[in-house]
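User: Second chain of the day. Same drill as before.
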Amino acid sequence: MKHIIECVPNFSEGREMDVIRQITEVIEKVAGIKLLNVDPGYATNRTVVTFAGEPDAVVEAAFLAIKKASELIDMRQHTGEHPRFGATDVCPLVPVANITMEEIVVYARALAKRVGEELQIPVYCYEQAAFEPKRQSLANCRSGEYEGLPEKLASSQWKPDFGPAQFNARSGAIAIGARNFLVAYNINLNTTSVRRANSIAFDIREAGRILRAGDPLTGKVITDEKGEPIRIPGSLKKVRAIGWYIKEYGMAQISMNLTDISVTPVHVAFDEVCKKADEQGLRVTGSELIGLVPLSCMLEAGKYFLHKQKRSSGIPDEEIIEMAVHSLGLNELAPFDPKKRIIEYLLKEEPKDQLVDLSLRKLTFETASDSPAPGGGSISAAVGALGAALGSMVANLSAHKRGWDDRWEEFSDWAEKGKSAYNSLLLMVDEDTRAFNRVMDAFGLPKVSADQKEMRKNAIQEATLKAIEVPFQVMKLAVDALDLLGKMAEIGNPNSASDVAVGALCLKTAVSGAYLNVRINALELSDPSQVEGILLQAERMEKETIQRCDQIQKQVLQKINSKS
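Assistant: Same format as last time:
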């Protein structure tokens, strides 16, 4: 499995598109790199770039981008709303898949060392890559911004971790770090007042506000017995926030960094700002996500708002995400396209010509063609997915049946189980065809020499075992989904009784069809005892499924007869 990391450099240029293009071009030229997002901001005069790939490629692309930015961006000319101290202001590396934070730190420090030595830019390592606690905070590293760098670099306490302790007037300095996934998130207010926006930001951010006498923003600072300012903690953990005015939007915003969305997710931050704004007579009009977000972030938000409405969340991901987009007002300033803004969707490389992507008509024609695949195994999985989907539909309809309002959560949980089942069964539609093709490929191997014959024999046996495992997995998934249909026959919306019956029949077909595939594929094994346990278990599952489906049919008929 590949080690995948993400890099999110912030460049101090958001107005000259040609400069941004030249920087992203050097990133894209590195083999194995996928440029995920480019998000320029005119008012902030800052562009957030996101790209991902394997570690060595990411580090190389990051270095080349930092080098190109140092050639194109002159900090002596830079102005913007966002804090900054370098042409490439920050460059964090973020773990995405199959890599630890400890490994990320090694890569970040290697990048920092190269930038300092080869480009002669002062480098501060921050977050997890920091060499001392006070440098973990990006705000500390960047304090004084570009204008304060000459004084900062002259201080022994702020000697760069790498690079010269000398002011680089053109490029400034850079913070390179290793961190967990950070979500940059702005919430829009129906005011132009930075003072009011800051007041809300101080109320919600973890650092809170300094306690003052009288006016909370301008009053005299109150200190403790040691003369230190007393702070009032904010209401949200792992949140940094400031208020600012964005001229191009004609509104003030609360600009936040959510540094740990497992502690404070987007939807919690949104609702808390709504609450604080209301207390000050303001309204939240919408929000914007900067850069990319994890899929989990959007799904959690969508489910949160669905649950607030006492609606089932056992619906397709696309609908959950749509609920999140509308509830958070993510379309207010610019269209929010999930396919371009959710990192998993951008990184996902779907195999071409998947059966599940075909229309029903094309899948039918493909199945009817004179090729042996797709065959009964793939169709069994597809029929099973439809059966589980019908179960989810009945649960979702039951969740908002008139008079059943207090049962929405019970039915939502069942709908979620059905959703998990049909998503898993859909994956098996193509997996079964791939398993069959592997068997055919194995039979096509050369068999001239003794070694080739042995390799071919072993390949056939290995591929055949996989061709048995796939339909067996289809059986297990369909059997599990029968729990949902059985429950809906018992407690579901009686108006959908026939849908329950059809769903159960689909799952029965999936189990019996997959069982036949297990049996026929086992005949190709030179040693059938290898799958003796699977065959016995599969036979038992099929018999039990037939009995359970018969029982569901009886329950459904009783409901139908009682209505006649």
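The longest helix spans residues 450-491.

User: Great, on to the next one.
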